[in-house]
Every structure is written in C-alpha cells, then in structure tokens.
Amino acid sequence: MTNFSTIIPRLFESFQLNIQLFFLTLLFSLPLGLFIAFGSMSRFKPVAWLTKTFVWIIRGTPLMLQVIIIFFAPGLLDMGAPWGSGSSARFTAATVAFVINYACYFSEIYRGGIQGIPKGQVEAGQVLGMTKGQIFFRVTLLQVIKRILPAMSNEVITLVKDTSLARIISIKEIIMMAQEYTAQGLIWPLFSTGIFFLAFIGILTVLFGRLEKKLDYFKVL
Amino acid sequence: MALLEVISIEKSFGQTRVLDGISFTLDKGRALAIIGSSGSGKTTLLRCLNFLEKPDRGRILVNDELLFDAEDALTQRESDIRRKRLNFGLVFQAFNLFPQYTVLKNVTLAGELLLRERGKKQADAADGKQIQDEARALLAQMGLTGKEGAYPHQLSGGQQQRVAIARALALKPKILCFDEPTSALDPELTGEVLRVVRSLAEKKMTMIIVTHEMAFARDVADEVIFMDEGMIVEQGPPQSVISNPREERTRQFLARFSSEA
Predict the structure, then answer these.
(1) Number of folded domains in chain A?
(2) Assuming Cys at both sites, which of A25, A32, B59, B107 could form a disulfide with B135, CB separation 3.0 to 4.6 Å?
(3) Beta-carbon contacts below 8 Å between A and B
C-alpha cells in the first residue's frame, strides 16, 4: 500500500505535463488555425495552394513523427538550439509540433464552418455598410462557433490523449512515468492512467456541453 | 431632377449576358416596380445598385453624384463603396436577419457600428439612445411592437421580413430596394409585408421593388419596368405596362402570369 500512496502522486505530477501541453497547444493553435483557414480560402491562388499543401503534409504524417522531426531537425541541420537545452527544450519542441499539427486540423474545421455560413449573412452586413472585419466578428463568428462546436470538442478530446505522444522525445508524461513502474514489474499504474484521462475528458465534455447549451438561444438559419 | 440615374449598365457572368444596357431614372418619392420572368436580370440589377455585383459597363448616379463608373477605377475603391452603399437599402428575398441578435439589435447594429467608428466617445450614450429609440419607432411602424427582444427563429417569415425592412430603413437610405420580398413567404403571410411596403409608398419613400405580385405592382408602383433577357422591354405607369402593355413579350409574360395565378 505504500506503493499506492507514493505512485499515485507521482502519476499526478507527470499528468500535469500532459495538461500543460494540452493548454499551451490550445492557446496557440486555436488562433493559428484561423490564419491557416484564411490562407486556404485565399483568393490569391498561390497562398491557397501553399497553405493547402502544408495542411496536407501535416495531416498526412503522424504527429509522433512531427514531434521527432521538430525536436531533432535543428541540431541535424546545424541551426543551433532554437528550443533551448535540457528537458524544457524537449517540452518546447513538443509544444511547437502540437501547435502546428492541431492548428492544421482546426483550420479545416474553421474553413468548413465559415464556408457553411449562408452568403446572405455577409451580404446583409455589406449592404448595411459594415466593414469586412465587422462582418466577420459581429455577424459570422458566433454562427461559425456554434456550427463547429461539436467537431471542435471531438478534436480537443483527441488532443488530451495525444499529449502522451510527447514521450517519444522522453518527456516524462503520465504514460511514460507509468511504464517505468511496468519495467519494475508493476502493471497497475499503467492501467490506472486511463482514469486520469477519463476524469479530465469528463470535465471537458461537461464544459463543451454547457457551451453548446449557452449557444442554444439562437438557431443558425 | 432624378434622384437615381442608371446609365447603360451591362453585366455578364462568364458567357452569359445578364444585363444588356439597362438605363432608367427614378425621381424622389417614387416607387418603381420591376417585373419579368426568372433570369431576366432583375435581381442582378438590384445587386449592382447595392454594389454586391460590379457592372462591366455603365454608370450609376445618385443626386448627380457619380457613384459608379465602370470606366473609372477611382469610383470603385473599396473604402468608398461602403459609404456609397448607404445611399441604398436592400431587403432580401431570404430576409438574412442575423440569427444571434434580437430583433432590436438587428435593427440597431449597423448604426451603432457606424457611430462607434466615427469615434464620438462623448456623445455615444445620447446617440446610442437615439438609435434605439428610432429602431423602436421603426419596429412599431412595422407592427412589431413587443417583438423587440425576440430572436429571428422565434418569428414567422412575415415578421422576419418586416424586421429586415426596419433594419434597412434604420440607416435612412435614399432608395430602398426590395428583391422579391414575399417570394420566400407562405401565401397567407405575403399580405402583411405588402401592407408595410404600401405604407412606405404612401409616405413617399423612394423604392425599387422587384416582384412577382402583379396586382401589388399595379396598385402601389408609380412606374413599372418589364425586363426580359437583360433588357428593358417596356417602361411606364402601371396602367399601361401591366394593364395595357404595348409589347408582345410583355403581354406573353403577363398572360402566363394570370394563367398561373
């Protein structure tokens, strides 16, 4: 039982890395995804083409591989140490990889949501003399958010579990931590990590449910 | 003096010529009905007036001010277009209300944004109040008192369209355009919208109404234009164009119409 009381806190501690990675990824990838979405919808063809190719590459290769490449490439290419040194360098590199990867997925969800808004909404704003920015922020944005919420909640939930991929560059997140006990012959810590994910995702599910309910007051026509 | 002058407007989409030299004038306080079959270019003409489409050729003047000249890129600057648009209001066939805002906010939003842009921080409260009061008065005029706090999806189509009319009027356009305002409505709801348009005509609002409601056009419009294949075939007072058309094509169109109705 001494095992239990020492192991659980250590799992908790390592799970904080997962959660940090999760929040940092969201913080940067949510806005970055919007830029990518605008890029892929650009009327200037080269920009649209470049953006779409980039999204294809990022969505078409494993996130695990991207984490490895982003962490090791600067060293291999003799580009110095953009990620700093030590364990914080690993974490920074993983965050960058996650942000890019998730921004690409979000961008496609955004694009679908934006293109799904009836053209008449934009035109109604135009004939009322609104600027493009006013139309986007005052007219379409909330409708887009309402439309994409279910898809976004899916993606965000996937992100929670994906944070474990960071162990590929030796970030001691919860599963890597638990595997150390497995190596010592203890299997239950690894199994118990599932509870951490379940609990955290349970909270997120409730939050997303509340948000959806909050936007229930209007209907996208 | 004509309030609106449209000169030789042409517009093509790809190979299809949708407007083929449209010219007309409209005096202040007059209601113009545009009739014609689907695909005759009526809607595109309204969209050109509201800068939602850019004509390939032609000029548009309001109060002798050149708003658009296809030959003159200076008249087509994006920043000016916003201001020029405000000469016109447009009521859409599909209403296009903003679903996330209340009825009142739908009417006040654009005015409040314009106010904020002018950056008059001091006068904001008083001006904001004025916008609200005017919006309430407009909604009352549309018979929508008590609906200020409702959301668009809670209203019938006829109510939504009346909100849309109030929204367009709130910016005090010189010319109000209607693009088949009753075509998306159930027959029993067209009456309430047409009544509102009629009352605006009685108040001498300058209007251009694209419509399939022949009886309405005959009663309310001061002038009627019949369009076919992107051209004006016949133009004049409703007593002649609708009741007594000179042109064979107008007669065919109206005959088809009365047999449908």
Answers:
(1) 1
(2) B107
(3) 64
List residues of chain A with CB under 8 Å from any CB of chain B: 118, 120-121, 123-131, 134, 138-139, 142-143, 146, 217-221
Which CA distances in Å does B166 have to A3, B137, B176? 72, 9, 11
In a domain, A189, yes or no: yes
- Of B201, B204, B165, B170, give the one whose Cα is nearest residue B181: B165
Give B15's strand partners: none
Gap from B37 CA to chain A (nearest CA, Å) = 22
Residue A3 has a pLDDT of 80
Neighboring chain A residues of B102 at a CB cutoff of 8 Å: none
Enter the ipTM: 0.91
CA distance B157 to B162: 9
CATH number at residue A82: 1.10.3720.10
How far apart, in whole angstroms, are the C-alpha atoms of residue B209 and residue B190?
14
Query: Residue A113: inside a domain, yes or no?
Result: yes
The residues, any chain, with a CB within 8 Å of residue A128's CB and separated by 6 or more, are: B109, B110, B167, B168, B171
Question: Does the distance separating the beta carbons of A126 and B167 come in below 8 Å?
Answer: no
Residue A138: which of B50, B85, B109 has the nearest Cβ?
B109
Query: Does residue B229 register a pLDDT over 60?
Result: yes
Q: Percentage of chain B surpassing pLDDT 70?
A: 96
C-alpha A218/C-alpha A150 separation (Å) is: 16
pTM of the model: 0.86
Residues of chain A contacting B51 with CB distance shorter than 8 Å = 126
Distance from CA of A119 to the nearest CA of B (A): 9
Does residue A221 belong to any structural domain of this protein? no
